[in-house]
Design goal:
heterodimer; A: alpha+beta; Four Helix Bundle (Hemerythrin (Met), subunit A); Alpha-Beta Plaits; five-stranded mixed β-sheet; B: alpha/beta; Transcription Regulator spoIIAA; 4 strands; globular
């Protein structure tokens, strides 16, 4: 197996497990008796420790081991679950996360700070254990060397055959450390052929003393392989400290087998049988060995009498009989095993794919969309019906591929939301307010790249709501609200965008103070009349992010301009609903995807423009009378409502000849409508968004570009900005009219 | 999950789901409990979806305890997961039960 890949899998798994652990811990906080949750936390720690052990990441194993011991006590009910313990375990989880990132991901030793945190946590954890954790049985590393040296031919005579003899006694703790002897034997079998294996359960104590989570098994194996000794030892690398391993090379000397038999704890006659049975030694050799042994025992006077020289002729026969029974069993088992493997393959329904591969795919699909648009255009021009039909079928399929490919990148937002349980919990402890988190719409999906970037702004908003939005408990009680505050996270889809709401049931924004502050900062003029929404959105202005604004104002405004910038970078926008005394809701509106959209293509003069199709409400042709009217003012009467509009020809200073006709495209965003006056409506168009260069970063009203089938470039209009502009223009002219009236 | 039915002192035990370290404690108690009361015991393994060393050890323990008290213990209807472990540890002969395919 490729270790790098395996390590990556370990990293991903560990992160997921830590996430699960955190969620379970937070659950435990509200329901301390939840057995499932305790089990989940234990399993997470257990699995991480085990996997870390496989990679030899000792720092992680050492720390997690202690945490797991505490969890074990929790599971058995010896240690009660309370707030302190959960807080400690949460920090322990964080620390494991830090270790995983540093030790496993970057391959460095933990830095000073991490180590200090770790030590402090260990102290606290050990307090729960009461006693110092017992140390695992340690194998003597000297043994291996000794045997290797014994390979020199000497007087003892060679015995055995071309197989290695592996004698293995697992320490009691291996299972608890997350390692299963089964997996080592399975792995060993990949290096060669296990000619014979005998399981030795002799070490298992009487039933009442037997701890089912301890391992009492030992194995005697004969193993045929071209692997060298270090490779075989490598198989057991991760349990080396936890097991007693002896490896005798092929054609070892009798002495060494005798040594082995003497060293092992089991009955010597039985071990002899096993060796004969496996073919490592012959009956004759064994007899010799046993005689040798008796002589030595006699000379050492240490062995108890009676168990020494018991010649064993009948046993071999019994074993052969057993061997025959066994063969049938093995065959049957093999058949079953194969079936099991097949059904397992059907069960795995998920595959992990590297995100880069998906991005590549999306890029390719983007190119495919452009290429097929070009093909469609050519086929249209050729007036060949058959060709036209073929390309339109292809276009439809390309569209499906596009949707399918984009769907692959869609991720539910729930995971991002769930992280906030922890944030809210920690922070409410920190600032001394009791605050709960309510999540809705967790199953709403959006593009992975968007999800990755939305975390920070959300964090900011949630912290802000908790810190400044929700009042202290006394104030809340005076206002007749429950003492416990609530922060809400909600997500839903709305006309081609996703809306994420961060709400609180706090005091709401103070309109007057914001306005006063804005006047003081010169963000608004004294005569400007602003709607509530406009005033609230002032807190996103850069001028509001200074420190004294935070203390003077009802609080809001810490780096809110950064939040807005981040969201705008994602082609999104943010707005605020606030009701004094009842709370504030921040609405973030984001496009569903950043790569390919359904667009609506429009022509102005010789240029083409695209708006996202989801934002287009309707298209109206302007008649001659209306065209005259629209020359003088920038709004029209749309079925009785005022619709402000922008003439794109003027807005982009288009020079080309004016068209014979003009159309107005009504677009909507975030509940506001505006019209775009264009020459030509060119219909639906699959749009692959290409970002504009840095040079155009400050360009207002354009959010990107795309390539048409003809190879020409069309600009993608930034509808929110245009709407804002149209509405502002209209409001200004209304104000001017008002002033004119007032002067009269 | 361990369930059992008693038929004239013969305990027919059925193990369902994982027989792993996560359930080892609970399984051990259930098995010993049954062993203490039975005259004969039969463990049906057809529902075992996963078995690790600790689960296997419990079977060894049960077999040994049963033998010590002179009570017959049979393992029947080995599931694929069980058979794989038996095979890997080469312990089918230890239990001496005929292996019959369940599916």
């Amino acid at each position: 197996m490729n270790m790098d890949q395996a390590l990556q899998t370990f990293l991903i798994e560990s992160r997921e497990l830590l996430q699960a652990m955190e969620e379970a811990l937070l659950n435990l906080e509200s329901e301390p008796d939840d057995k499932e949750a305790i089990g989940a936390v234990f399993r997470a720690a257990h699995t991480i420790k085990g996997s870390a052990g496989l990679f030899g990441l000792d720092t992680i194993v050492a720390f997690t081991h202690v945490a797991e011991n505490v969890l074990d006590k929790v599971r058995s009910g010896e240690v009660p679950v309370n707030g302190d313990l959960i807080a400690l375990l949460l920090s322990a989880g964080d620390h494991i996360g830090a270790l995983v990132e540093q030790v496993a991901a970057q391959g460095v030793e933990p830095d000073e700070a991490t180590r200090a945190t770790g030590d402090a946590l260990l102290q606290k954890l050990k307090a729960y254990l009461g006693v110092a954790p017992h140390s695992a049985p340690v194998a003597q590393p000297g043994e291996m060397v000794e045997h290797a040296a014994a390979l020199q031919p000497s007087g003892g005579g060679l015995v055995g055959r071309d197989t290695w003899h592996i004698s293995l006694r697992f320490g009691q703790d291996v299972l608890k450390n997350g390692m299963d002897p089964l997996s080592f034997i399975r792995y060993l079998a990949t290096l060669g052929e296990i000619v014979s294996i005998t399981t030795m359960p002799d070490a298992m104590p009487p039933a009442e003393k037997m701890d089912p989570e301890c391992c009492y098994l030992g194995f005697e194996m004969d193993f045929r392989s071209d692997a060298d000794k270090s490779m075989i030892e490598g198989v057991f690398e991760f349990v080396r400290d936890d097991c007693n391993l002896r490896i005798l090379p092929p054609y070892s000397r009798v002495d060494e087998y005798i040594q082995l038999i003497n060293d092992l704890p089991e009955d010597k006659v039985r071990l002899g049988e096993i060796l004969i049975n496996s073919g490592a030694v012959t009956q004759k050799e064994l007899d010799e060995m046993l005689i040798c042994q008796t002589m030595r025992a006699a000379s050492a006077e240490s062995a108890p009498p009676g168990e020494d020289v018991t010649p064993v002729p009948p046993l071999g026969e019994i074993l052969v009989q057993e061997g025959m029974v066994q063969k049938e069993l093995v065959d049957a088992a093999l058949g079953k095993q194969k079936q099991a493997r097949e059904s397992k393959a059907q069960e795995s329904k998920f595959i992990r794919v590297h995100a880069d591969k998906l991005d590549d795919l999306i890029n390719l699909v983007g190119e495919l969309v452009i290429a097929s648009a070009s093909a469609a255009l050519l086929s249209q021009r050729s007036r060949d019906m058959m060709l036209h039909e073929a390309t339109s079928t292809m276009s439809r399929l390309v569209e499906e591929i596009r949707d399918g490919a984009l769907q692959l990148r869609m991720v539910q937002i729930g995971e991002t939301f769930n992280r906030f349980h922890r944030v809210v919990r920690d922070m409410s402890k920190e600032i001394g307010k009791e605050i709960g988190l309510v999540i809705t719409g967790a199953e709403t999906e959006l593009d992975k790249t968007v999800i990755e970037k939305i975390g920070d702004p959300l964090m900011h908003l949630v912290r802000n709501s908790m810190d400044h939005g929700i009042e202290p408990a006394e104030v809340r009680r005076q206002r007749g609200k429950p003492a416990k505050g609530t922060v809400r996270l909600n997500a839903y889809h709305e006309s081609g965008s996703i809306v994420i709401e961060v709400g609180d049931d706090g005091g709401g924004l103070n309109r007057e103070r914001i306005l006063a502050k804005a006047l003081e900062r010169g963000l608004v003029g004294p005569n400007q009349s602003l709607s509530d929404k406009e005033i609230y959105s002032l807190i996103f202005e850069a001028g509001f992010s200074t420190a004294d604004a935070v203390t003077n104002l009802s609080g809001r405004g810490v780096g809110m301009d950064v939040v807005r910038r981040n969201i705008e970078a994602l082609r999104g926008m943010i707005e605020i609903d606030s009701e004094p005394g009842a709370g504030t809701t921040m609405k973030i509106r984001l496009p569903l995807t950043l790569a390919i959209i359904d667009g609506f293509l429009m022509g102005v003069g010789s240029a083409s423009y695209v708006v996202p199709l989801d934002m287009v409400m309707e298209c109206i042709e302007l008649n001659e009378v209306e065209r005259q009217e629209t020359r003088e003012r920038n709004y029209i009467n749309l079925r009785g409502t005022v619709l402000p509009f922008i003439r794109l020809r003027d807005h982009f200073r288009e020079q080309g000849k004016a068209g014979r006709r003009e159309n107005i495209v009504v677009v909507q965003y975030a509940g506001q409508k505006a019209g775009l006056v264009v020459d030509e409506l060119m219909g639906e168009f699959q749009t692959v968004i290409k970002p504009l260069g840095k040079l155009f970063g400050n360009l207002k009203g354009v959010s990107g570009s795309t390539i048409l089938g003809s190879g020409e470039v069309a600009l993608i209009l930034d509808v929110p900005a245009l709407i804002q502009r149209a509405v502002n223009l209209e409001a200004q002219s209304v104000r001017q009219d008002n002033r004119a009236v007032a002067v009269k | 999950m361990i369930t059992h039915e008693v038929d004239n002192g013969v305990y027919r035990i059925k193990v369902e789901g994982e027989m792993t370290i996560y359930h080892a404690l609970e399984h051990k108690q259930a098995l010993l409990e049954c062993l203490a009361h039975c005259t004969e015991m039969e463990i049906n393994l057809s529902g075992v979806s996963e078995m690790d060393t600790s689960g296997f050890q419990l079977l060894v323990l049960a077999k040994r305890e049963a033998a010590r008290n002179g009570r017959p213990l049979r393992l029947v209807e080995h599931s694929p997961a069980t058979l794989e472990v038996m095979d890997l540890f080469n312990m089918a002969a230890y239990f001496g039960d005929p292996v019959v395919m369940t599916h």
